[in-house]
Amino acid sequence: MVLWGTDNLKREGGPIAQALALMGTRARFDSFGRLAGAELIPLEELGRPRIDVMMTVSGIFRDLLPLQTKLLAEAAYLAAMADEPADRNFIRLHAQAYAAQNDVDMETAALRVFSNADGAYGSNVNNLIESGAWTDEQELAETFVKRKSFAYGREGKPVAQEALMKSILAETDLAYQNLDSVEVGVTTVDHYFDTLGGISRTVAGAKGEAVPVYIGDQTSGDAKVRTLEEQVSLETRTRMLNPKWYDALLEHGYEGVRQIETHVTNTLGWSATTGQVDGWVYKQLTETFMLDEELRDRMAALNPTASAKLANRLLEAHERNYWTPDEETLEALRRAGEELEDKLEGIGVEEVAA
Prior knowledge:
Elements: E1 2-3, H1 5-10, H2 14-22, E2 25-29, E3 35-40, H3 43-46, E4 55-57, H4 59-64, H5 66-81, H6 90-102, H7 106-109, E5 113-115, H8 125-131, H9 137-148, E6 150-152, E7 158-160, H10 162-170, E8 175-179, H11 191-207, E9 213-217, E10 224-227, H12 228-240, H13 243-250, H14 254-274, H15 279-289, H16 293-302, H17 304-319, H18 327-345
Parallel strand pairs: 1-4, 4-5, 8-9
Antiparallel strand pairs: 2-3, 5-6, 6-7, 9-10
């Protein structure tokens, strides 16, 4: 489960409460009403097993919410140390197995809160996608682990625990993150696939198969959980393929085109990290922004660099086998890309005599 600092501030700790509830724990307060730690909900009251939850918290969460970071770590520790049946407490079951196999204490085996080292932020998966300087998906997973494998225990101090993280992710059944803004979606900014996508790719490498990725849409009164595939499809239809959306962006000129290209790059990021983007998404993006000559020329006039980059992203998605266009579409996309590159370099532009 991915936890961000700003999301928890805006929702008054809602995602934190989700993680605590899954583990069968709750916050503990002192007589003055101050947060003092965690406590277990008795199994009789809980009425179900304790779920093993690994939490990846952002660097901002770590910085802004140190008490909550310790709270989550203590909750996992208490669950791991509880004398309860293994089939009713999966945190204890997995922690005991790891401790025995790796000859470590239960304090270490129970670590479930991971983030960056002090002073570091992000997994750098987004930077690799942006640069295009990566060879295969395993490189993305390795980058994620190196950056995000610092475990935070009850004392709130980070310790590198790559082996523990990989062990937990190898047994992961699903990845999850909340979405709480109507203005920012999973294809709007690269932070979503940088973390949730990075986890998914690492799980696939450690487990040998992909796992479901879910988005908890908290943007309305009736929260809804969607698969990542459903969420990307929804955002593609309502934003990127919506003339009201991209026409409004293009009114902002240079920056509007850059924003459109950013959405396409982020969509590629989800393909690279999860493989859960339908091929029709790239097909319709190509038809809308590259094969419509009038719209393509309009974008190129506003921002030739971003327009050429957008074409290259769509071609990159094909070359990395994230979609398979028919020969006619592929050839048209290539011609459009070449035309945009020529315009960017000033080829074919008539010189006006002084």
